[in-house]
Design brief:
Layout (H helix, E strand, L loop, with lengths): L9 H4 L3 H9 L7 H12 L4 E4 L6 H15 L8 E4 L3 H18 L3 E4 L5 H9 L4 E4 L1 H10 L4 H5 L4 E4 L9 H17 L5 E5 L5 H8 L8 E4 L7 E10 L6 H9 L6 H4 L2 H14 L3 E5 L3 H18 L5 E4 L5 H12 L5 E5 L14 E5 L5 H8 L9 E10 L7 H4 L2 H14 L13 H15 L4 H10 L8 H13 L3 E3 L5 E3 L1 H8 L12 E6 L2 E7 L9 E4 L2 E9 L4 E6 L17 H12 L10 H16 L7 E4 L2 E4 L5 H13 L4 E4 L2 E4 L4 H14 L4 H5 L16 H9 L4 H17 L3 E3 L18 E8 L9 E9 L5 E8 L9 H4 L3 H4 L5 H12 L3 E4 L2 H15 L8 E3 H8 L8 H7 L10 H21 L5 H4 L27
Parallel strand pairs: 1-6, 1-7, 2-4, 2-5, 3-4, 5-6, 8-13, 9-11, 9-12, 10-11, 12-13, 16-20, 21-25, 26-29, 29-30
Antiparallel strand pairs: 14-15, 16-17, 18-19, 19-20, 21-22, 22-24, 23-24, 26-27, 27-28
Protein name: ATP-dependent helicase Lhr and Lhr-like helicase
Keywords: ATP-binding, Exonuclease, Helicase, Hydrolase, Nuclease, Nucleotide-binding
GO molecular function, one term: helicase activity
């Protein structure tokens, strides 16, 4: 058989004859641009190479055709010859199938190593390590920890290190772990192993090269494919959110009677319309629908397959997300590859990466894309084999009611989607994230080094990980402080000769299977039916036996829940709702927000790719932008508050909010706006002018304002000083200062529009003081973000209308995740493990709140967290009547510089007890309320509205959950 090169390629001639023969057997007419360009530098074997191209452009072959040529030239030596690292087990399984075809022809062994590979297979591989090893970072970490003394034997012969989906690692804790592991492989091999990175195209490939080889990015050969240009057909479709046929209460009532509730009856109108369009448009071919979240995947898969059932046609829609079992995911992938029958996968970002699913006709994206780079990756799935790439983007906006918030009037989701498309057409992509300290991952790597070597000196650990390793932002004093923090947390101890060894807690940590991952994952239940595993469900949303869920695109009834084995047994059923999953989206880049501002102001330009509804929504958003005066000023008065619209990226928005908070005002994020509480526009303009003149406080000072800075897996063992320094790296003081200067200049010239918030249906003034009971609440939580926080302890003291005590309710609450600032509330995972979850006590809490004014010290936060927790259960109140003792203290308390609860109690001569103990805090708050009410009535105050009570009592019973009597109170301090 001839080995003539495709299209007469010179690079092709340099490949080994057997590799040439294999290429010819595949009937390839030519090599892709990146494949051609990568052959020479990889064959040289003396440099690092970074290959950037779109999904499905042949990056894997670009790396492995020359790698396998080198391995074929040389005899099979002891140890692995090449190591391929992937972020996904599914991607490893896919690449194994692709590489095995090539390597079987060449006589090269290909082996997989991850959590789903049998132990017996791993043992055989370690007895005779050969060829190409495909592995995840976590499995490689486990190899260092458990077989540290054998690492050199395994890796001494490695010729190449290939990292797939490199862009997914950059700027993350997992990425810092990967960099450390690559460096430790070099040390084990006692030479610099050439690295080959496979990446999507990024906005700054120089930073990607620096990530691939820290301190030597300039020496990396960067290959960026320019041949992925293709015809793009796209449309953005707009929708308006309308209420479902059945609201939450009606749904709960039907389910309580055991009646089936149709998915169509409880879906909002926009979701039904989107599902209808997807069903009509996508049937009959192969497509991907990126739904935005795992819950949305389940929801849309169910809605679409219901339409298949109603139309009496075969089901074409399959789910794909990370919580589904390997079998179900692989079934979805196989359906997409099968050209004999149509299939559409409704998925999260799991199919954004390079798993081989064949070509698809089109891509659908529900909601604004997470980033320009992610959208480009997804588009790479469509338009192959010379066809056009097709994108349909579905965006929903709130209904324009009298109660709509000004930020929602701007139709920001739609405008963000348009901005993302415009930047995509300009071929702009987000640059990699800025370098961080990654102290959590450094903690893991210190313990891993100790385990690998059986102990290590501080000097050797610093040299390995920081001085010569990837944690270059950590200097020697910082490293020493970190070691002291780890010793204080009982993770490490130091022998008399200086050797660092694991302490008792550290030993347990290293020996636990969760140690190998640099990121924290919630505890999950395995979902099983008839002995078959469907996938896993986070424990944060436990469901009672007999309840209905949607999972793996189908409806199930829960039969049993085994809390010890972490197992949920289910059977097929009708009805059901998708489970809730935790997810955090990427930060929106500054370029996207500044592009949004331009789109608002260029009113004569309407993109041709908008459908009629999207055009109408864009016109509404531009009209609101004009009506709010945002072309002249970023400030909009909103009742007693001010909305600030900077139109800057999330990092700048966070820094700006902290800078304003440092000047004594409360700031809350609302979409593209910052709400400055109890501050009129003129005062807000003064604050901006002061910040412009004085300068934004430095990042350390701003970070110190965050009470809970624990974000990453091992942050709970790191001291406050280092956590502050670590959090400071997340802020952007320089660009925030520039933004504030521009904002201050604008506010000098103009006058802000003032709006009145929607009026309550029942004015609070109708209630006299003494006519309603009180529910004094205190909660301890996992963080300060009301949308993300989970309650770890709650205490409620019910008071009669005259202020006398009625009853008390108090319990610890298992948040189903890391408990947050243990150093503040003193609660640990072990202490909370046996506590009830919030869904189990929702009825108890609702019974304490019903018919009462909710009182708290900073009630905006406490009521916000409570409402969010109830919403997760499906029983959110339509309103709450609230009263804040923090505000009462400012009016009726002694003059003070601080109005923290402990300080207010001390000012009144009260014995507060233990701060951040929910029942102690609730008692102090209740006593302060009684004092302030007496002073208010003595001054002639008669109505709750005069006290600052806002909201209204719920119009009807809102929580049908039963009282459980599962309370597990925390022991009161001595």
């Amino acid at each position: 058989m001839t080995t003539s090169p495709p299209s007469g390629s010179d690079a092709f001639e340099r490949l080994h004859p057997k590799v040439q023969q294999w290429i010819w057997q595949q009937n390839w007419r030519e090599l892709h641009e990146a494949q051609e360009a990568a052959i020479a530098p990889i064959l040289a074997g003396d440099r690092d190479v970074l290959i950037a191209a779109a999904t499905a452009s042949g990056k894997t072959e670009a790396a492995f055709l020359p790698v396998c040529s080198v391995l074929t030239e040389q005899p099979d030596s002891a140890g692995f010859a090449a190591v391929y690292i992937s972020p996904l087990k599914a991607l490893i399984n896919d690449q194994y199938g692709r590489l095995d075809q090539l390597c079987d022809h060449l006589g090269i062994t290909v082996s997989r190593w991850h959590g789903d590979v049998a132990t017996s297979s791993k043992s055989k591989l370690l007895d005779r390590p050969r060829g190409i090893l495909l592995i995840t970072p976590e499995s490689l970490e486990a190899m260092f920890v458990l077989r540290g003394w054998k690492i050199r034997d395994f890796m001494a012969s490695v010729r190449y290190l290939v990292i797939d989906e490199l862009h997914s690692f950059i700027g993350t804790e997992r990425g810092a772990q990967l960099q450390s592991l690559m460096h430790r492989l070099d040390l084990a091999a006692r030479r610099r192993i050439p690295r080959i990175g496979l990446s999507a195209t990024l906005g700054d490939m120089g930073k990607a090269a620096d990530f691939l080889r820290p301190r030597a990015g300039d020496d990396v050969t960067v290959i960026v494919s320019s041949s992925d240009a293709q015809e793009l057909r796209l449309q953005i479709r707009g929708y308006v959110q309308t209420a479902p046929t059945l609201d939450l209460r009606a749904r709960a009532a039907h389910e309580a009677l055991g009646e089936e509730v149709s998915a169509d009856d409880v879906a909002t109108g926009d979701r039904l319309a989107i599902a209808d369009h997807l069903f009509t448009t996508l049937r009959g071919s192969h497509h991907l629908v990126f739904a935005g979240s795992r819950a949305a995947v389940e929801d849309y898969t169910d809605l679409l397959n219901r339409r298949c059932e109603n139309a009496r046609v075969p089901e074409e829609f399959v789910p794909h997300h990370g919580n589904l079992s390997k079998d179900i995911r692989e079934h979805a992938e196989a359906r997409l590859k099968d050209r004999t029958r149509p299939a559409t996968a409704v998925c999260t970002s799991t199919l954004e990466m390079g798993i081989d699913i064949g070509s698809v006709t089109s891509i659908a994206q529900i909601g604004a894309p997470p980033s320009v780079a992610a959208l480009r990756q997804r588009l790479g799935r469509s338009g192959r084999r010379g066809g056009p790439a097709i994108l349909r983007l579905y965006v929903s906006e709130p209904e324009a009611t009298p109660a709509i918030h000004p930020a929602d009037e701007l139709r920001a989701q739609l405008v963000q989607a348009i901005a993302t498309i415009e930047l995509l057409l300009q071929r702009w992509y987000e640059p990699p994230a800025a370098e961080a300290l990654h102290l959590s991952t450094l903690t893991q790597q210190i313990l891993s080094l100790i385990a690998q070597h059986g102990g290590i000196t501080p000097a050797d650990a610093y040299r390995t990980l920081c001085a010569q390793g990837p944690f270059r932002a950590v200097d020697s004093p910082t490293f020493a402080t970190l070691l002291r923090d780890l010793a204080a947390a009982d993770l490490i101890r130091q022998e008399n000769d200086g050797l660092l060894l694991p302490a008792e807690t550290g030993e347990r940590l290293i020996n636990h299977h969760t140690f190998y991952a640099a990121f924290a994952a919630p505890t999950e239940y395995r979902i099983v039916t008839e002995g078959r595993t469907l996938g896993s469900l986070p424990i944060e949303q436990p469901l009672p036996e007999g309840s209905l869920i949607i999972f793996a695109g189908r409806r199930w009834r829960i039969l049993t829940i085994d809390t010890h084995a972490k197992l949920i047994e289910v059977t097929r059923a009708s009805g059901g709702r998708p489970p809730r999953f935790t997810s955090t989206g990427p930060l929106v880049h500054d370029r996207i927000r500044t592009t949004m501002r331009r789109l608002y102001e260029e009113e004569s330009t309407v993109p041709a790719y908008l459908d009629a509804t999207a055009q109408s929504l864009l016109a509404e958003g531009r009209a609101a932008y004009r009506r709010l005066g945002l072309h002249d000023t970023p400030l909009v008065g909103y009742g007693n508050d001010t909305l600030l619209f900077p139109f800057r990226g999330d990092a700048i928005m966070t820094t700006l909010g902290l800078a304003l908070h440092a000047h004594g005002v409360d700031v809350v994020r609302y979409g593209v706006a910052l709400l400055i509480s109890d501050t009129f526009p003129q005062a807000a303009a003064g604050l901006l002018a002061d910040l412009a003149a004085e300068g934004v406080p430095d990042a350390l000072a701003l970070a110190a304002l965050i009470p809970d800075k624990r974000v990453d897996k091992y942050d709970d063992v790191i001291g406050e000083e280092l956590l502050t320094r670590s959090y400071a790296h997340r802020l952007n003081v320089t660009e925030t200062q520039q933004s504030i200067s521009a904002l201050a200049t604008t506010t000098d010239r103009t006058r802000a529009v003032n709006l009145d918030p929607p009026k309550a249906a029942v004015p609070p003034r109708q209630h006299r003081i003494g006519s309603l009971p009180y529910a004094v609440v205190d909660i301890e939580t996992t963080c300060l973000d009301t949308r993300k926080a989970r309650i770890t302890e709650i205490a409620i003291i019910r008071l009669h209308p005259d202020g006398s005590k009625d009853r008390t309710y108090s319990t610890l609450v298992n948040p189903g995740r890391w408990p947050g600032p243990t150093h503040i509330h003193g609660l640990t995972e072990g202490e909370l493990a046996a506590a009830p979850h919030f869904p189990q006590i929702a009825g108890d809490v609702a019974a304490m709140l019903d018919g009462a004014i909710v009182v708290a010290h900073n009630v905006r936060y406490d009521s916000g967290v409570l409402s969010t927790e109830f919403a997760r259960v499906g029983y959110a109140p339509d309103n709450l009547m609230t009263l804040c003792t923090l505000n009462l203290a400012r009016r009726f308390g002694p003059p003070a510089t601080s109005h923290r609860l402990a300080d207010c109690a001390a000012a009144e001569g009260l014995d507060h007890g233990t701060a951040h103990h929910a029942e102690s805090d609730a008692r102090a708050c209740a006593t302060l309320l009684q004092i302030y009410l007496e002073r208010a009535t003595a001054q002639g105050v008669q109505w709750f509205s005069e006290l600052g009570v806002i909201g209204q009592l719920p119009a009807r019973p809102w929580c049908p959950a039963p009282v459980s009597a599962l309370a597990r109170p925390r022991a009161m301090p001595e």
